[in-house]
Design a protein that fits this description.
Blueprint (H helix, E strand, L loop, with lengths): L20 H10 L1 H16 L11 H14 L1 H7 L4 H23 L1 H4 L1 H4 L8 H27 L11 H25 L3 H14 L15 H7 L1 H13 L7 H25 L3 H4 L1
Helix pairs in contact: 2-8, 3-5, 5-8, 5-9, 5-10, 5-12, 9-12, 9-13, 12-13
Length: 281
């Protein structure tokens, strides 16, 4: 038997219990091919053996637009001002449908992939972000209908439409953060998947989707924007794209800062609890 030399130093590597945000994001970038493959698979499975296929991305906001236009009638036209109410409400539903569908699907993303969570290592945040990117594809498809409505109602689109890009980026960051939190909570508390649809339903009517943000009382406006950044993005997006109104830069910067703060907080929560995912799924 050969004796082990006690003088040989032994180095032990311990995992950082508090990894930095940028380091974790670099791991996701390193696994970007896995993320893209899962997004492609999700889109194929979602519309496989369906008659309408990708039209299912258009039907929810389109049907809701018709329902709200018919039943709200004159009241809706008072909110939309110079804009035709179908264009007004579809612009809000377009963004809301992206946010709500991404969050709803992301909530069950960890549990639905339990077969691989406990066997293969990869950044777990990839799973909630698959629906976030997949819903972006649905958003692009549904935007074709929005373009058709703009042309049909002869709504002018000016240079202010370029603000749609940063506003959509803000919404995507916020959605990615909320998706991480809901997915983590649902892994430990399965009641969350039943609660989320109710929360989203209330959240929609608390957002300026079918009505203008001006309908909110003036004294409540600062708190309203702070508590509901999704509503703020919808309001600024609609004004920039079809209203010809450039968003107030302080409002845009404030929404971006809030989205980043929510994203960082939700990411920290997710990374803190993910170590036990394999034991609870």
């Amino acid at each position: 038997m050969v004796a082990r030399d006690a003088a040989v130093p032994v180095t032990v590597y311990a995992a950082d219990s508090r990894p930095r945000l940028l380091a974790q994001l670099r791991q996701v970038v390193a696994h970007r091919e896995l993320l893209l493959v899962l997004v492609q698979r999700d889109l194929k499975v979602r519309y496989k053996q369906t008659v309408l296929g990708a039209l299912w991305a258009v039907l929810p906001p389109l049907l809701l637009m018709v329902v709200f236009s018919v039943f709200l009638g004159r009241l809706g036209r008072t909110w939309s001002g110079a804009l035709p109410y179908p264009v007004f409400v579809y612009a809000g539903l377009l963004l809301w449908n992206y946010f709500s569908s991404a969050v709803a699907q992301a909530t069950t993303s960890i549990v639905s992939h339990q077969s691989i969570v406990g066997k293969v290592w990869f950044p777990r945040e990839i799973l909630p972000w698959v629906p976030v990117l997949g819903a972006g594809v649905d958003f692009l498809v549904a935007s074709a209908v929005f373009a058709g409505l703009v042309v049909y109602y002869h709504v002018p689109v000016g240079w202010t439409a370029v603000y749609a890009v940063p506003l959509l980026a803000v919404l995507m960051v916020y959605t990615a953060g909320i998706s991480l939190a809901f997915a983590a909570f649902n892994t430990y508390f399965r009641d969350v998947r039943y609660l989320v649809p109710l929360v989203l339903q209330v959240w929609m009517f608390a957002s300026p989707v079918v009505y203008a943000a001006d309908a909110v009382p003036g004294w409540l406006q600062p708190y309203y924007r702070l508590a509901n950044p999704v509503g703020g993005v919808i309001d600024l997006y609609r004004g920039a794209v079809v209203g010809g109104v450039a968003p107030d830069m302080w409002s845009l910067v404030g929404l971006a800062a809030e989205a980043l703060a929510v994203f960082a907080a939700c990411y920290a929560i997710f990374k803190r609890v993910e170590r036990n995912f394999a034991d609870v799924v």
